[in-house]
Amino acid sequence: MAVRRDRSTDTGRSGPCNPLRSEKGVIIIAVLWICALIMWFALQISSGVRLRGEEQAHIMRRSQSLHLAIGGSFEAIARMGQTSVAGLDEAAEDHWQPDGTPRVVNFLTGQAVVIVEDEQTKVNINIANPQQIKAVLERTGVEGPAAENLADAIADFIDRDDLIRSHGLEKEGYARLGLHYGPFNGPLLSLDQLLLIPGVTHRMFFGYGMKRGDAAENESGIVQQPWMPGQDSLFQLCTVYGKNSLLKEEGLEREVQRKTVPWRNSGVYRILSCGKTAGDASPVVLWLVVRLAPETDSGYEVLYRRIL
Q1: Which among 30, 93, 239, 240 is placed 20 to 30 Å from 122, CA to CA?
Q2: Can you identify the CATH homologous superfamily of domain 60-119+261-307?
Q3: How many helices (H) and strands (E) does the chain have?
Q4: Can you list the pairs that 165-170 forms with residues at least 24 positions away whose Cβ atoms lie under 8 Å?
């Protein structure tokens, strides 16, 4: 008599309906997914660690560049008030003048390119009239009606009345633009406050020109520094110190730079110091405004400082 086998109790038979084989397949897939997730998390953690490491390295390089810029500015301050020596080569590194000539100060970890200029040679935006401001704006590249409109807006920002010039802007105009402040109706305390005036852009203020860098490379053998503000920019043409309101001609400026530029007691000078570590492209520019004050213990007074 033949014995009938029950398929439900046959654990050795293979086939598509075998539950053990199906369970093994599910387990393998689950294990693969878990491995993939572990690898993904590991890559995310590794990427985060690498980015944090690069950020820390960038911060460290910026800090080193800042200290190099500070060292260059102290070198310039130490040389303020140097007297001219007869027969001394005016281009020599040991004789600094406030004539805008780039000077290189070398350190063990990098260098600083330092420029010192007399603020008196720039246009005091606080005392210039709209036509004089317009001439400055045209030098920066603003032309025609745009220069006239912006000159009136700058004049309205500084003057003490609430009368709106032909193309100017007073408190109501600032409110219409959605700004939470209005015109100062008083002198600017620092030159970068020009950026508060509608229409004055960062490009216009700092400039993108390389004229100063080209001159530095041609005359002094210094590699041009594109991080310095452009020659034809509001930053380079204007000031909030001194009594000058006229824009000097370029030819006259070049003639003045060929002569000895003396230091003036109580004179106000601008120091730009660009610090850069060796082989690094993360420079830092320090902007100082310093008054030569021989009557004080330190011999100088810092009027303004900012990292550009």
Answers
A1: 93
A2: GSPII I/J protein-like (3.30.1300.30)
A3: 8, 7
A4: 165/130, 169/197, 169/198
Q: How would CATH label the architecture of 130-200?
A: Orthogonal Bundle (1.10)
Distance, C-alpha 53 to centroid of its chain:
24
Can you read off the two tokens belonging to residue 305?
A: 């400082």
Distance CA 165, CA 153 (A): 8
265-297: per-residue pLDDT in tens?
899 999 999 998 877 667 899 999 999 998 888
* Burial category of 123 from C-beta neighbours within 10 Å (exposed 0-12, middle 13-18, buried 19 and up): buried
- Each residue of 99-148: pLDDT tens digit? 888 999 999 889 999 999 999 999 999 999 999 999 999 999 998 899 99
Residues 6+ apart with CB under 8 A from 173: 164, 198
Residue type, 97: Q
Q: How confident is the model at residue 221 (pLDDT cuts 50, 70, 90)?
A: very low
